[in-house]
From TrEMBL, chains A, B:
It holds the Pfam family TP_methylase. Transmembrane segments: none annotated. Residues 4-213 form the Tetrapyrrole methylase domain. GO terms for biological process: cobalamin biosynthetic process; methylation. This is Precorrin-3 methyltransferase. InterPro entries: 4pyrrol_Mease (IPR000878), 4pyrrol_Methylase_sf (IPR035996), 4pyrrole_Mease_sub1 (IPR014777), 4pyrrole_Mease_sub2 (IPR014776), Cbl_synth_CobJ/CibH_dom (IPR006363), Precorrin_MeTrfase (IPR051810). GO terms for molecular function: methyltransferase activity. The keyword Transferase applies.
C-alpha cells in the first residue's frame, strides 16, 4: 500500500479562488481531515470520507491523518486560505518531527492557496503593495509579551501589518490592546481594514482610521490589515475608496 | 462605453495554481497590459490584444491601461503571483491618485493570486507557519538604509523573512549585505530557502544554512525565505527535508 498525505488550502472562501491544483488533489483523495467548516466547503463523492474535528485540535488531527496515510490511505488535510500560513502544514510537520520514524518516509505534499490577507488586500486596493508582515494575535501558543514586542518592532519599522486570529471568545481583550500599541507608533488616520468572508455572500468589509478602530468590527474569521504611515486612501464617487501602500518610500 | 480594469495575478507559474476567477477575468478581457514574460504565460484568443512592456515601466503601463479603460476597453493588467504583493495593483492605485478625476470613476477590480513566497514555502514544508514578513530588497524605490533597518527589526523580533526582488544586474551587492546583517541576529544554522520557478519544469530549489547562504543561488525571479531561530529541519531518507516554523514559541 502506498499512502500519501496532501495538505491543501481551499482559499479564502470564494470558490473561484480555489486553485485547480487543490481541486485535483481533493478529487484524487479518499480521506479528508480538517476543521468542520472547511470540510463543509468541499464537494465530495459518496466514496470520499470526512473526519471533521474542532479548530483547537490540530496536532491530534495531524497524528490521525499521518497514521491513516502510513496505513496506505490517500489522505487530504484541508485548511482554508493557504495551508502554510497559521494553518495545518506546520502542525503536520510538528507531528512528523515528534512521531514515529515511518512518518518521515511518507509521501507528503503541501499545495499553496490564496491566504486571507491577499483576498482582503485585493478587495481594498493594494494595502500590501509595500513591505508587510503577518502576525497571529493568538496567544494560545506564544506569550502575549512577544506579540506586543513584535507589534512595536514592525510598526516602528514601517511595515504594513496583517493580523490573523485577531479575536475569539477566549481572547476578548487582545485586539483592543494591539490597537492601543499601534497608536503609539502610527498616525490615528492610518487606514485599518477589517475583512471577513471576502468574496462570499456574507462578506463583511470595513475601513476605519486607526483612531476609531474598534474590536467589535472583528470576529475570529476576520483578517485585519493595518496600513503604515505611508498607506493612502483614494476616495471615489459612489464607490468604496481604494486603500493602497505606495511601492516607494522617499524618506 | 463602459470600460473596466481588472488586475489579475496568474500565480507563481504552475498553471494549476492560477485561480479560476483569474482565468475567467482573462477570458472576458480584450486588452492585456503587462511585463512580457507574464503575458507569455497567457493563452489568448485572436481577438485579444497584448501590450507588453519592460518590468521597470509600471507607472507608464498603468497610465496606458487606465487610459484604455476610460475609453471603454475591457482591460486586464497582468502580474505574476499575487498582483497586490510588490506588483501591479499598487502601481495602478498610484496612477489613479495622480491621474485625471475620470480614472476615479472607473470600474476597478483586483483579483488575488498565489504569491511566490507561498509556493516556495509549500515546496519546503511550512517555513511561514509562524509570524513572518515580506520585504522587497530592491532599493530602486526606497533607500537602502531603510531596508537594512527593517531587516534588523524583523530578525530581532523573531519573524520569518521572505525576500522579494533579491538581486538583479543593477543591484548585485545588496543580497550579500542582507545575509551579513541577518547573521548578526540569527544562528548560522538558520535555514535559508531559495525558490525559483517552483512547480515549473525549470524549478530551482535549494536550502542552505544562513552561514553558507550565497547570493549566487539567487536571481531576480528567486524568492528567498529566511527562517527564524525557531525554524526547524526534518531530515527524510531519500527525500528533500521538510523545513518548518513551529506554530508556537515557548520563550
Amino acid at each position: 500500500m502506498t499512502g500519501r498525505l496532501t495538505v491543501v488550502g481551499t482559499g479564502p472562501g470564494n470558490p473561484g479562488q480555489t486553485t485547480p491544483q487543490a481541486l485535483e488533489a481533493i478529487a484524487s483523495s479518499e480521506l479528508f481531515f480538517g476543521y468542520a467548516p472547511y470540510l463543509d466547503r468541499l464537494t465530495l463523492r459518496a466514496d470520499q470520507v470526512r473526519v471533521a474535528s474542532d479548530n483547537r485540535e490540530e496536532i491530534d488531527r495531524s497524528r490521525a491523518a499521518l497514521d491513516a496515510a502510513s496505513k496506505g490511505a490517500k489522505v487530504c488535510v484541508v485548511s482554508g486560505g493557504d495551508p502554510g500560513v497559521f494553518a495545518m502544514a506546520a502542525a503536520i510537520c510538528e507531528a512528523i518531527e515528534a512521531g514515529p520514524e515511518t512518518w518521515r518516509r511518507l509521501d507528503i505534499e503541501v499545495l499553496p492557496g490564496v491566504t486571507a490577507m491577499l483576498a482582503v488586500a485585493a478587495r481594498a486596493g493594494a494595502p500590501l503593495g509595500h513591505d508587510f508582515c503577518a502576525i497571529s494575535l493568538s496567544d494560545n501558543l506564544k506569550p502575549w509579551e512577544l506579540i506586543e514586542r513584535r507589534l512595536r518592532a514592525v510598526s516602528e519599522a514601517g511595515l504594513v501589518i496583517a493580523l490573523y486570529n485577531p479575536i475569539s471568545k477566549a481572547r476578548p481583550w487582545q485586539l483592543a490592546t494591539a490597537f492601543k500599541i499601534l497608536r503609539e507608533f502610527l498616525p490615528v488616520t492610518t487606514p485599518v481594514i477589517f475583512g471577513r468572508a471576502v468574496g462570499r455572500p456574507d462578506e463583511h468589509f470595513v475601513v476605519s482610521p486607526l483612531g476609531e478602530a474598534d474590536r467589535q468590527k472583528a470576529d475570529m474569521a476576520t483578517c485585519i490589515i493595518i496600513g503604515s504611515a505611508e498607506t493612502r486612501i483614494i476616495e471615489r464617487p459612489g464607490m468604496d475608496p481604494l486603500v493602497y501602500s505606495p511601492r516607494g518610500v522617499s524618506q
